[in-house]
Every structure is written in C-alpha cells, then in structure tokens.
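Q: My labmate handed me this sequence with no annotations at all. I'd like to see what the chain might look like in three dimensions before we decide whether it's worth expressing. Could you predict it?
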Amino acid sequence: MSGSAPTVDPLVVLPGRRRMPRLSLQGLLWCATALTTFAAGVVGWQPVVLGFDADLMSALPGHWDRGVVYMLAVLAVLGAHEAGHFVAARLHGIPATLPFFIPVPVMLTGTLGAVIGMEGSRADRRELFDIALAGPLAGLVLAVPALVIGLLVGTPAADPLFAMPPLAEWLMRLVRPDLLSAAGIDPNPLYMAGWVGLLVTGLNMIPVSQLDGGHVVYALLGPRANWVARTLLLAAITAVVVLGRFNWVIMVVLVTLIGVDHPPIREEDRPLDRFRTVLGFLSLAIPLVTFMPEPLRM
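A: Here is what I predict for the chain of 298 residues:
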C-alpha cells in the first residue's frame, strides 16, 4: 500500500562520519519490486510464488515484454503517488524520505505499494493536508490513463480473477461499451498497472490512522477526526466478523498496531481555508469509486 508512514528519520548517523542518506535499503527494495512486478507480468498475474514455480521460466521467453511494460507502468504509477507526497513535503520544508517500495513474491501484482517517512509533527493542518492529498492525486494522474489504455486494448474475459472498481466500470462504459456484456477483462500490463493504482489509492484514502485519508480528515477536523477513525475501525471489524471478509484481517491488525488515533501536529487550531476544505471533503469520495472490498474473484 502506498502512503505516509509514521515518523522516520530520513538520515542515518554513522559513527565518526557525516550523516548519510539511507538510500541503500530504498534502492534494494526498488530493485526487488522491479523484479517481482516484472515476474508478475511475465506469468500473467497468477497466484504463483517467485522462485518456487516453473511457470515463470516457461513463460519468460514468450512474455518477457509483457513483464517489462507492467513493471515500468506500475512503478511509474506508484512512484508518482510517492513523488506527490515527497515534493509537497519538501515544498513545505517538512523532512521526508524517498519512497520505500514493497515487493511481494506472490505474483498477483508483485507489490503492495510504497511508503515514505516524514516528520509529520512539524506540519500544521494546511501542510499536512497538502502533503497527504498530493500523493493520491499524483498517482491517479497516471493510473487513470493507464487503465483507460488498458481497457482500449483489452479483450473480454469469461471468468476474470480481478474485480473492477466502480471507476473502472464507468470508464469501460465510456470507452469500451462492447465489453459490458462480458464478465470482465483479461488482464494486460497497462490495465493492471492502473488497477493496482486505483486499489492502492482507494485503500490509502480510507480516513483511518496514518493512511492518506486519515491525514486528510485530521487536517479537516483536527482531533475530532480520531472519533471518525475509531468508528470506521469498529465498523471494519464488524464487517469482517459479520460478513466473513477475513481477507482484511491483516489490514485491520496493521492499522490497529500503527495506531488508530492520529498523532498531534503543529498549530492544530489553525483551520483550513475554504478551497482546501471543499477539496478535502470531495476527496473523501475517492475510496468509494476506487476501493474494492473483494479485489479478487476467487
């Protein structure tokens, strides 16, 4: 998932040396994510494990180009999201790290997104708002066109593995109405890069904890936003138990461990201006059109 992580020192103090940027871990994670997303595209976004399945080696000669396109596209979408956070943080003078990409060896998508660290306690409500919302908006700037192009070149699927978020269904009605009679679309590199971008954006814009949506709501409401987060977490736990959505247990546990309440920030009494307030409340619709409670049809 992509978003702003808890406070992280972007520099490491080495004994007897100058402070050096912690870039080696970020570089390794980027390379690992490039490998896992390349492999995901090669095998056609199937639930196999990198290094433990012969499908990757057998598919490599015929589908290496599919892997390259998906790798470049999904890294660009996720990179744009994190670049939005990073640039906004630097413009406001808030220390922030370069992104930490998250690779996964299961070849469905090859990644869980990326995170950056920032010293959020040094931001006021307006700065927090700008930093939080810049990421999702920047990511959507690339994710939506990638999804549209993927729809334009896509073929119908009788039994698709990946569910479509509402925004993807609306776009399909607009650009590919001939696919409406099908159950879905066969995955292709650009469609899947856009799909991942929408899922990551929708998940991060849920107004809980230190997800992007949690930052936005805290910027809008101040400490009262903690009651919104607590209510949503209780609703999520109830849905998991009552509806049997146990695939989200790990996410609920992670949010709980990170902390449901938003940490304090600078000048909490300073309200947002009217433009930011309107934009902030409108942005709360993003997860409604991009998030999927059941991303996989299994």
